[in-house]
Write a structure and sequence with these properties.
The complex is a heterodimer of chains A (about 180) and B (about 210). Chain A has about 180 residues and is an all-beta fold. Helices cover about 0% and strands about 40% of the residues of chain A. Chain A is globular and about 55 Å long. The mean pLDDT of chain B is about 90. By secondary structure, chain B is an alpha+beta fold. In chain B, about 40% of the residues are buried. In chain B, the strands form 2 sheets. In chain B, strands 1, 2, 3, 5, 7, 10 and 12 form a 7-stranded mixed sheet that branches. In chain B, strands 4-6-11-8-9 form a 5-stranded antiparallel sheet, with no helix packed on it.
Chain lengths: ~180, ~210
Amino acid sequence: MPALCDPNPNTYGSAAFGGTAIVGPPAFPTPPAYWRQAFTQTGHQILLQGTRAGETLAEDWKIAWLGLAFPNKQQHITEIRMQIGDRKFGRINLEEMHAYNKPALIFENGYVIDEETAFEIYGYFEGPIPALAGPQGAVQPGIPTVDMNGTDTACLYQRIIMLGAAYYKQSDRALGLVGAAI
Amino acid sequence: MTGGYILCEYEQVKKNFPEFARTMASLRTALIAKATADWSPKSFGGLAPTSAQFGETTILPALFRGLGQVFSAAPVAGTNSLQTWHQFYNAVGSQMILQGVRQGGVIPEDYKIGLVGLALLDKAIRISEIKMQISDKKLPRINIEEALAYNKPAIIFEDGYILDEETGFDLHAFITTRGPQRILPIGLQLNRVPNRLQVTNTGAVI
């Protein structure tokens, strides 16, 4: 579930993305309700990480992780790097995804992300992100935006879905409102 | 036929070209055996190697320079090595479109690459012919305009090639039109020092 993860901080710019509008520098106030993220910056950045302090997975949850799906027509992530606990995985180039319709990265051996264990997935967001203002300074129609500290900022969307299963110790942890924080 | 190549639809290659799996598997085995011998006593550590192991990953663009990028002793991100496989061709005719990032077009120390082909990941193909050199081994000109008939074409070699550390690699092409192009080397890469890929930023220079 996306509520177990923090995406890149800019996704939280607006409540429209399931999070709470923030004031100040991008942070991780509440997790979003879905895997879609809004990117306002290119380059190396967090894609997904545990939602608790220290990027840890919430207590009483365990994840069986098999891969990542990128269900977009256009792909923006070119490279990833990840860490589970103290186990570091090297950089992987993903541009082969451009040959596929709805690509996925599947691990030959799955991984267990244990409760209260840190995990981070970093990625390189290629861009370019379109400029909100056109050559004459006027706002261009059709450019997706996200509210960044009260300012409409041009962004690109990318949905990154963790494939696998999540297991929980107490059933009421999974019985809240759909899309709610855990 | 050995030593040949095939132009095909990359989306279909794994379905309709079972030889590809064998080529890939045998190249991977050969590359790991070579690395085990060259980098002894390190052993193969896969995607998450420890300090006593060497690692495996996809071929990274940071090991290469693209069209118009020149060698620099003090690497500056994005100016003298590729961050992604995307390039913008700003010149036509016979051009060097890919070469090792180190001086003289050399693959960096501590990296070995297994190359089984090239995937052309754009709708518009802007090159008509390629020529490749790996160390002192020259591969002749290959016309690839058949690729225009396919959606996402790829050139698959029937025998893979090993680009060894500290050996030269050049890929030349005849560019027909200026514009963006994404050409992806298909294969795998082994790295002797795990930390270089485990702690550097994605897209960063190596």
